[in-house]
Specification:
With 116 residues, this protein is α+β, with helices and mostly antiparallel strands. It has one domain. It has five helices and two strands, in the order ααββααα. It has helices at 7-25, 31-34, 60-69, 72-89, 94-115, and strands at residues 38-44, 50-56. Strands 1-2 form a two-stranded antiparallel ribbon. Strand 1 (38-44) and strand 2 (50-56) form a beta hairpin. Helix 1 (7-25) packs across helix 4 and helix 1 crosses helix 5. The relative contact order is 0.17.
Amino acid sequence: MFTELSWLQFIILAFASFRFTHLLVYDDISIPLRRHFIEPSAQKDEQGQVITVFEPLGTGIRRFIGLILLCHWCTGIWSALFLTALVLFVPGAWWLLIILAAAGVAAIIETIVLRL
């Protein structure tokens, strides 16, 4: 079932995983999803500044997903796994990955341009 992955497909998968991870962990559009698994709270640091701290909610699978969403490295692994499985089992899924990859490259370019 598994076919050999070309370098181009690997690069597309990598950028798509990057963008999908960012979408889940940081983007405002995903706040309604994250709200089910993590909860923000205001706390004071050593200097008396109020900072927002996020904590996982619940127990079991809900807490597990919350812990994953609090770690972009962890979410990245699961994103890559999900997207890889998607292209293996859904023939037309490469279009979604190409869109995510293009958005990921655009985000990287925008970040570089803003820092110049």
